[in-house]
Amino acid sequence: MKIAVGSDHAGFYLKNEIIKHLEDKGYELKDFGAFTEASCDYPDYAVKVAEEVAAKNYDYGILICGTGIGISIAANKVPGIRAALCNDTFSAHASREHNDANILAMGARVIGGGLALDIVDTFLSASFMGDKHLRRINKISDIESKYKK
Ligand code: RB5
To answer: Is 90 exceeded by the pLDDT of residue 149?
Structure first.
């Protein structure tokens, strides 16, 4: 499984913790930045990861900013992306099972490292349930198509 990871400055340390955790477990990862804790803009990293996931170069993306809000909003502007902001494990497995989320977003200023790693593991081990949930995510794609220029 290939995973693209990105953050702004607020998510920099948590991103590094997640990368180490997943590398230790044998996942193939690419870090799309930020590479320092210098102040930067979360949309710049959201779009890098989101485009890679939408192009299917990676199976999933993980994005972190201070709240997880800005970076998930930005990622969801890329067609084909279903970025889910999950700061708890229930949301993490539901986002995969019901929404077929392809990007997990978290807020480094909201949750601690221990919970974040549990959320990541939960997200990556859950599977899409399809059926009525497929019908619903297809309706999300229809909305995207309606506004495509
Ligand atoms: C950066 O200060 C902060 O605004 C950002 O990390 C994020 O929380 C935005 O949604």
So the answer is: no
